[in-house]
Automatic annotation (TrEMBL):
Belongs to the GTP cyclohydrolase I type 2/NIF3 family. The keyword Metal-binding applies. Keywords: Metal-binding. Homohexamer. The keyword Metal-binding applies. It comes from the Bacteria. This is GTP cyclohydrolase 1 type 2 homolog. Pfam families: DUF34_NIF3.
């Protein structure tokens, strides 16, 4: 099935909503339109002139970028400047660009979780809290013979996760009554006759972030023309979201060994290390992709043995050293991990929804730094 840019982004937003980005982060549609059919979507870390050339050659309709291409507002559109020419080329070739930046760092099953998976960091929590969202409760009324199917659909959409438990729900059986009138096309019953149906009321909870996907899963699984459901906010349960992650390695290693692991996992020629003692034992690791130096005090407060983040500034490195925090700066470009991971996720959606779309990742290396 061919789909529009809007259909794809609607699904993307249910996974990685814009409102989970840090305040002022210019996420979302940057260039072009989503009101068009899409056949090829390319994922990239950076939108650079070489990446735009690649997108034109590969007939890409939509670019999903980790780094917003218009991070600082363009003051003029002088296309003799390479950066601005790039915007013009994108518009001329009808290539839309959509950015998911800090929201991709904050969401669960996002970039920082992919880093932890790659490095074997378990039992993770966020490094720096950014958002607290309430839980919602959905109560849906469905004929008893459809109850099991509805519970499965709600669970698959992520509803009913409570602590270490999945698919939690509560149901009770009652009687639903309705009289279809002119214009109705009832699944059960006849026009202008009162109908009574044995219905289950199924209740599930979920964080507000999942509202769109849970409601659309419920509507898709409901047999009625006019599904009956209540949706309300619950006061006694909240969910925190944050940037970066802190977690544990399976078994302790020396800092020197850990550095070797980082170089290997990210295929690095070199990295920058801030540490007095390279034989220090590492068990608890904090990580924040990109430029996370401003969160180093959270790594200290959360008792991390080492903090991994990019773009560490010279004087901040002095402060980190003075406070006894070991820091590994593998560079900002390790965020390229978002490309294969997003393509994998999009291909899963392609399968689930039977989309006729090709998902690719950019093959351009946008790392401006080389080690010599
Ligand atoms: Zn970044």
């Amino acid at each position: 099935m061919s789909i529009s840019g809007n259909t794809f982004i609607e699904k993307f937003e249910s996974y990685c909503p814009q409102w989970l980005a840090e305040a002022g982060d210019p996420v979302g549609l940057h260039i072009g339109t989503l009101n068009k059919e899409i056949e090829t979507v390319m994922v990239t870390l950076d939108v650079r002139p070489e990446v735009v050339t690649e997108a034109i050659e590969k007939k890409v309709d939509l670019i999903i970028a980790k780094h917003p291409p218009i991070f600082r507002p363009a003051k003029r559109l002088d296309i003799d400047e390479p950066q601005t020419k790039m915007y013009a080329d994108l518009l001329k070739n009808d290539i839309a660009v959509f950015a998911a930046h800090t929201n991709l760092d904050i969401i669960e099953n996002g970039l920082n979780d992919w880093f932890c998976e790659l490095l074997g960091i378990h039992e993770t929590t966020y490094l720096t809290k950014t958002h607290t969202v309430p839980y919602k409760k959905l109560a849906v009324f469905v004929p008893v013979e459809h109850a099991a199917e509805m519970r499965t659909a709600l669970g698959q959409a992520g509803a009913g996760t409570q602590g270490d438990y999945r698919n939690t729900s509560y149901s009770m059986i009652g009687t639903g009554r309705f009289t279809p009138v002119d214009g109705a096309n009832p699944t059960i019953g006849e026009l202008n006759q009162e109908e009574r149906v044995q219905e289950a009321k199924i209740e599930v909870i979920f964080p507000e972030t999942l509202e769109r996907q849970v409601i659309s899963a419920m509507l898709a699984a409901h047999p009625y023309e006019e599904p009956a459901f209540d949706l309300y906010t619950i006061d006694n349960l909240k969910k925190d979201y944050g940037l970066g992650r802190v977690g544990e390695l399976d078994s302790p290693v020396s800092l020197a060994q850990f550095v070797v692991l980082i170089k290997e996992k990210f295929s690095l020629e070199g990295l920058r290390l801030v540490a007095d003692d390279e034989e220090k034992e590492i068990k608890r690791v904090a990580i924040c992709g990109g430029s996370g130096e401003k969160f180093y005090k959270d790594a200290l407060a959360k008792k991390a043995d080492v903090y991994i983040t990019g773009d560490v500034y010279y004087h901040t490195a002095h402060d980190m050293e003075a406070e006894g925090l070991a820091v590994i700066d593998p560079g900002h470009h390790i965020e390229e991990l978002c490309m294969p991971e997003l393509v994998k996720l999009f291909n899963q959606w392609k399968k689930d929804y039977n989309w006729n779309v090709t998902f690719i990742q950019s093959e351009i290396n946008t790392n401006p730094f080389k080690f010599r």
